[in-house]
Batch of 3 targets.
Target 1
Amino acid sequence: MPSRTQTTFAPPVMAASRWLEGVTFSADRPLINVCQAAPVDPPPMPMREAIAEAVLHNDAAHLYGPDLGLPELRAELAGKWSRAYGGAVAPAQVAITSGCNQAFAGAIMALCAEGDEVILPSPWYFNHHMWLDMCGLRTVALPTGPDMLPDPAEAAALITPRTRAIAIASPNNPAGVEYPPELLRALFEICRENRIKLILDETYRDFHAAPGAPHDLFTDPDWHDTLIQLYSFSKAYRLTGHRVGAMTAATAVLAEVEKFIDSVTICPNQVGQIAALWGLRNLDQWLAGERAEILDRRAAILDGLPAIAGRGWELLGLGAYFAYFRHPFDMPADQLAPWLVREHGVLLLPATMFRAEGDPRGQRELRVAFANLDRAGIGRLYDRLGDIPA
């Protein structure tokens, strides 16, 4: 029998990084890395100073803390969600986790037994699928349409007695698309009717293109019976290395998640939590500037698109950190992606890493994580892709 880890595939970003081995890039034609969705800059200096102050003078920063996170941080985030979504979120309904990936893992552990099913829209975030594999669960692919969004009726048709949740990400990874509020509400109602959970990963919510709340689910007085919301401080405050995420859910769910956290990390990173709390209290204006910059880069993707659209490229999805393309080449995507590194100095991911094995759509699609490129960098990316003969 294979071990739990042997039931799933190798981490895609790590696998793709190995395509760089033995490849050299000239100074006038450096590597363009659009592989991983992560900020490349450190946190802003005032936050780093707050971190240094805590490391030097706050003894508790170096000790174990509560399994579900610092009470002050849980309360601050509950207040933020209550204000942002116009609903009622209590501190006891918020848990702090070691990154958003642990939030997803904890939710799945709290909900599922071996052999259960979780519905994921395809293409999906690969770590979600990996964790389901390692838990002995069945990933049920929910097709998405030409707009990269799922049909609620198709989602409902996939539910069986073993289904425990529908798990979605909005803004989406990998396709970038933002789920309209009415679609999120429809999926929420389907989950409520079937007494399963809607797991909504909002890692990239701070970079949503629309002003205001991206959905109204927290305004439902019984939201906690159905909704599990996930969040990441990593993308908002450039805290990727500190591993700080969050889950907002029913207290009964968090009681189960507490068992998982206590057995894995015991508690979230204390220094990272202190930084996240400082960010929530002090960086709203700075974060608004970060959002504006990401939205400008999104606009640059659209502005430069004609340079490659005339050569057969098609933009399927766009938002947050991601642009999702259909490529025009006869070469399958899992061969094209490493070839692009060797021949054109572009590192991106093939959609075979986001779709079920054997799904032919994966061989025609590529994900570009553009958040670490400014407008000029996006222009250079289009120049490289446009130079490839179709």
Target 2
Amino acid sequence: MTMLRLEKNNRLRKINYYKRKALKPFNLSKWVIKYKVSQFLSKFIKTENVVLVGERLGQTANDTSYFLFKKACQTKTKNNFYYVINKKATTTSNLAGLPNVLHYGSLKHFIYFNKASTYVYSDSLRDVFHHWSDVHKEHSHKKKIFLQHGIFATSRAKGYYDRNSMLRRHELPDKFVVSSTYEEKLLQRQFGFMKNEIAVTGLTRFDYLPKNNDKKHRSILFMPTWREWLTNTNDDAFIKSEFYKKLTELFLSKDINELLAKYNYKMNICIHHQLKKHIDNFKRNFSNIEFFCIQEINVQELIIACDLMITDYSSASFDVLYQKKPVIYYQFDSARFFATRGGPLICPLTEFPGPVTKTLDSLIDELKNLLDNNCQPSSRYVKAANKFFSYRDNNNSRRVLQLIEGEK
């Protein structure tokens, strides 16, 4: 049955690939025409000081850009904020009741992209316009604020978020938002940014996290990072990968499931959006393990509800650390991962804000220790985590808005 499903999925992917290839010339001319029309129509829009906000190529409203927009809608501002999102995106519901929401790719989106004086993005400038690389020259004079979608420390993102790479993609921001003076120094030393290009404000989504979350929810959040070398793999190749084997080994582990039963805990698995097409390969009839896709849920609810996190390299670990909750890093393929992305910005032996494990057995040992101690992180890791937060005052969004508004 599984082989039949694999063959069907592969066949559909091939059909869609050739369909996209055949339609590419038509789609290109279609967006160019829309863009030219929108340039003309934007001259008739009376609204000034437009700030266009987006994240993850317009696919979500649950990350740093969304939380900034939410704050802007609750605040009296000099600028007019607009949020762009795919109308079919699951998290569009988070924008219900908020004004100035544009559908990604619509003519109205194109018009306000041309009208905007400032772009705010969490991943790339394609968050606010898919064809940014084709039109960047006409908009290079506009203000650009890069919010990040997480603190850079555990994963370098080599060749993408360093200054030279962003400059090469014409995405160099006027301000690169960070969460601490410690992170600011890391970006200057290792990413090549200048001090005046960095703003220490804190991430906007941290404002909606409890600073001291003492209530126990009896929940563990497992949030693995994507591997670039698995991009565009079919199901057959994916289930043969080390990544798939290590993850299923964890889910099916007798020791893990016994620990969950013994301490009356459940495990929520939040997978990267690149994994969505493979999610059926993971699903089993688990009584205490549940799967979610990052694109389709409010990730922050899972982060707030967890008592501890297991991840490999995810920057989302800092959302958990912000709440003074423990994180275990399970890095079974660190050599290959860091060879692809570049090593972490901090020392993996002494500076990680949680224990770093390489094997399932060592992960189980660390997990048992934390469950035995009611999920209280050790003082060593609390101290390591605190360096990454200059603010814990829930005013990060306000500081970013002041940055955009030109206030001190």
Target 3
Amino acid sequence: MRVLHVNKFLYRRGGAEGYLLDLAELQRAAGDEVGYFGMTHPHNESPLPYAEHFPSHVEFEPAPRGLRPRAAAAGRMIWSPAGRRGLARVLADFRPDVVHLHNIYHQLSPSVLAAARAAKVPCVLTLHDYKLACPSYQLLDKGELCDACVTGGPLMAARRRCKDGALGPSALLAVESWLHRSLRAYDPVAVFVSPSRFLAGVMGRAGVFPDRMHVLNHFVDVAALPMKETPGGGVVYAGRLSHEKGVDLLIEAVAALPAGAPVDIAGDGPARPALEERARRLAPGRIRFHGRLDKTRLHELIRSAAVVAVPSRWHENQPMAVLEAFGCGVPVVGTDLGGLPELITAGVDGEIVVADDPAALAVALGRLVADPGRAYAMGRAGRARVERDFSPAAHLTGLRELYALAGAPR
């Protein structure tokens, strides 16, 4: 089978890109031929044979400076002629059996779907966030949980000014989503894949193609992932450093942890300078920031821990941070939002705590750090869970079935 993966970024920027690249590797090992289409970016994987056809690099966070660049970026969010032309050329040369799309919003736009439809290539789209139901992606309004657009439609984003509290950016996101919905820009997608029941439920409430929505777990290749061998260690956080991830709550909780327990934070993002300052102020000398780590080093860091913290204050979908922690044999303390309760079984392979409550987070983390034997046993239970429910073979089989469904007459 020939599979063309389409995503705006083609490097390990976050969970979506990590999943895409790991899936492509899995498919190649199974004998499939895999190609990529995305946006030009200096950090993209190399080599990328079709890079000459990629649309140019643009960033939206922060927004481009100057009226003309901003207007051009806004137009590209709505519809990218360069994205459509580029993908059309790649489709003509690569001739895939299926186009598997991931995060195409903004930098690529659904114009790429028009190219696939014209070429009569079936499309499958894996959802990694809430964009098709929430114009600002995260079910957040100025950092607080919100589902106004899910039930009230995308123009609610403009009314509530949910993007940074500003009318201009909020209105742009609202109009973008309203136009795409009104024009049925995502209609060429035959199959939508949701990694969690929670996300699928949100899309169903928003009326986002519920008849085409299918739940399929992500996967972890534990055969290539050594497990933690001895009890002990501290706390590790691995992920993006941004407000919705709740890393500030972890820093606040550190003071209540047993003395000497190491706390390591791996990852990067816009909140890193503020988080480092917060750590110096609230927990001097107790927290180490490692920045973005390659997969091997990250897994080593996770295995050194007694527990992994996922203190999110937003509705996580199915974060790879949890699955990879379980694969390493380390339990997870996560919050009660989104798909996290689907992954973590309290008292078995981790604990669930109320979101935005650093005291509750500190208690749960502290219990596991103070009882390394219990933490070790819970980590082994997590490993057994991913071996059973998140195997690469099961994921590949399920995905092939969805590819076949996408190619069936509609």
